[in-house]
Every structure is written in structure tokens, then in C-alpha cells.
Amino acid sequence: MGIIEGTNAGFVTAAPNEDPGDFGFNFDFTAMGHRFTGPADAATVTEIGWYCFNATEAANYDVGIYTDAAGNDEPNEVVGDLAIDNAKGTGAGWKKVSGLSIPISGSNTIYWICVQLDDTATATAMKYNNGAGAQKRAYISSSSSLPSPWGTSNTKDNYIGAFYALYETAATGTNTQVNVGDTWKECPAMKVNIGDTWKEVAGMQVNVGDTWKNVF
Predict the structure, then answer these.
(1) Per-domain residue ranges for the chain?
(2) Where on the phi/psi map is residue 73: left (φ > 0), alpha (ψ -120 to 50), or beta?
(3) 137-146: string of b/e by CB count within 10 Å (b at 16+)?
(4) Angle at 56 between CA 24 and CA 16, to 5 degrees
(5) What is the CATH number of domain 10-169?
(6) What confidence tier does 105 reach under pLDDT thresholds 50, 70, 90?
(7) Strands (DSSP E) along 53-171, which ranges?
(8) What is the tens place of the pLDDT at every residue in 111-143?
(9) Which end of the chain has fewer CB atoms < 10 Å from its terminal CB, N or C?
């Protein structure tokens, strides 16, 4: 199949389950990020995964989403929270962390999907393609965790890796209900009165843990 953005790399709407093929790159004791543009309709990352090329000893790995250090070709700040100390197991194949809730912006914002793997006695490889052209990769060698913020990369190049982020789109409508006569009813629209004129509210957010999250 090969590594294809939107299918088994980058932002996806369905988690990949097949071997992406292509090449192996020794990856343990390394923090690595691949740069992708988030889809315009993306709202929340719910799962992050990567493809393990070979069977090796058990180890833990971290995953996260980072903003782009514009002009630097490397990640910058962590978006939401990192998911740390996830068990790799000992087999090859897709490794994934589910149940995430990482808010991301639409409008085709650039992000980095990042993974760090602890040291293994047998070198553990991820999968990548070396003909990626405009794609970007950055990594920090001898790294026992994902850094926050990213800091300075050891290496930056143009390869694409089999790192993916499964995302959900924002809910349609207002995602809000009111109780009328002991019955919950959907609010198709919310309005505010300005200067004696009712105007429709385009969006509403709530602050949870010092992070603004969309209600609609």
C-alpha cells in the first residue's frame, strides 16, 4: 500500500489496520514528530497511532499533538495533554492510544503528530517513506519522554512516517437542549438580542481545565 496521508498517516477519519509497507527506521529512545495539516472540519483528536516495524522487547511510549514552530520545521507547544507511558507490547503492527480528547482547530492549521519510544535492547523501527517531498519530520535522539515544549531537534528532514491521528468533526447544530414541560428538546439555534434585534450565535465555547472547548 505505502504510506499515504489521510489513509495511514496524518489526520484520518478511520484508523488504519494494514501494514503500510515502505521502510523501517530505528526509533527507540527517540522522540519523533511528523508535520501534517489538520482538516478544515477537524475538532477533536481521539486516537494517536504508529506502525511498529518489528517485534522487540516490551517498552513504553508517549504520544501527543504539537503546534508548529513556524519557519523552524519542527514542533513547538503541546496541544491539550500528552498521553504518556503506554505499553508497546512485544509484537510488530499498529500501536495506538485511544480515548483521547485533544482539541484542535479547523481552518487547515498545521500540527505535528509526535511519538516517543523508550529504549529497547533490540532496535525498534517505525515505518517511513523517503520520497515524501514537502512532508517534514523532526526528531530528538536519546529521549526518554516527549518534551514540553519540544525544544531543539537533532535532525530535521522531509520524510513521512506512519503516524496517524484519528479525529472527529464538530457537532452540527447547537448541541444544546432545554427542558420544556419535563421534556428535553433540541435547540436548533441560539440567539441574542442586540439593539432590539435577534441575532443568531455562530458558536459557543466553555472553559474546561483552562482550555476552551467548543459546544457548537
Answers:
(1) 10-169, 177-214
(2) left
(3) bbbbeebeeb
(4) 55
(5) 2.60.120
(6) confident
(7) 60-68, 75-87, 93-97, 102-103, 110-117, 125-129, 136-141, 155-157, 160-161, 163-169
(8) 999 999 999 999 999 999 987 666 899 999 999
(9) N
